[in-house]
Amino acid sequence: MLRIVDGRSGEPVELDPGRRFPLRVLAHTGAVGGTTALRVLLLADVLARTAETHGGQVLVASVGPADPALDAAAAALGIKPGAARGDDVTEAEEALAGPARVHVAPAGTETGGPRLDVGPVHPDEVTAGPGVRLALLRLDRRAPAELTPRTLEAADAALRHWRGAVARWAESPSRPMCAEYVERLQAALSADLDTAAYLAALDRLETETALPDGSRFETFAQADRVLALELTGEVGGVRS
User: Fold this and answer.
1) Would you give the DSSP letter of residue 74?
2) Collapsing DSSP states into helix, strand and coil, what is residue 58?
3) pLDDT given for residue 125 in this prediction
4) What pLDDT, on a 0 to 100 scale, did the predictor assign at position 223?
5) Residue 137 burial (CB count, 10 A)
6) In Å, how far are 90, 181, 202, 213, 223 from 172, measured between CA atoms?
7) Is the dihedral of CA 132, 138, 142, 144 positive or negative?
8) For residue 67, how many other CB atoms are within 10 A of its CB?
9) Which of 3, 32, 137, 186 has the fewest Cβ atoms nearer than 10 Å?
């Protein structure tokens, strides 16, 4: 089971990841637009990827007007296209052929079910890319995000570093994933989609020099199923 804190009540809510019936998710983008809407789609994407690692099926629909620029930015962040879109909740749920189990939305949004709160982002426009995805996932999802040039430069540098490290580890013999860290990673996302704790666990794993490189590679590769940062993108390639 997945567990989130409902932004409406502050109470924990358990979510079936969609093993028996699809987990229907509505991403409310229409009221905010810009980079905050992109963050809403990102958290819906992470929720869907997390449920899929539990063997579930997820259907995500966006609520708001069609926005080609937002769609292009979402694609640049590695966000999977939604199954549907609706101008309002009723239309989106009809498109998903069933009611939403959870809503991903800015705090205070009126929803008819549990709400996964997402904080605002400044500035309203950024050049979307994997570094933006990493910078946003580093934060508590409720916290305001300031995507300054320095923040994005640091995220891009961190991403290059990790991709290089993963490529080096891939050259070592394969080893089983580190069970302790797999448990930490699963716990972080299963408890309120804590991407900041998820990434902090990977930071610690990187420095666990006693672990075989092959184990670190396998664990990072598995973690990237949710992060979608293309951490294995340099494996087998030519690196500077």
Assistant:
1) H
2) strand
3) 87
4) 97
5) 21
6) 52, 19, 19, 6, 19
7) negative
8) 17
9) 3
Q: Tell me whether residue 232 is in a domain.
A: no
Tell me what pLDDT residue 126 has.
87
Residue 159 lies in a domain: yes
What is the domain range of residue 116?
Answer: 2-126
The CATH number covering residue 115 comes to 3.40.50
With b meaning 16 or more CB within 10 Å and e meaning fewer, what string describes 6-31? bbbeeeebebebbeeebbbbbbbbbe
Beta sheet of 102-106, edge-to-edge order: 84-86, 58-63, 23-28, 102-106, 115-118
173 is written with which tokens?
A: 């013999």
- Residue 157, Cβ density class (10 Å: 0-12 exposed, 13-18 middle, ≥19 buried): exposed
Q: What pLDDT score does 81 carry?
A: 95
Q: What is the pLDDT of residue 1?
A: 84
CA–CA dist 193, 186 (Å, integer): 10
Strand-pair category, 2-5 with 12-15: antiparallel
All residue ranges of the chain with pLDDT < 50 are: 238-240
Give the C-alpha separation, 157 to 169, whole Å: 18
Residue 104 pLDDT: 98
The reported pTM is 0.95
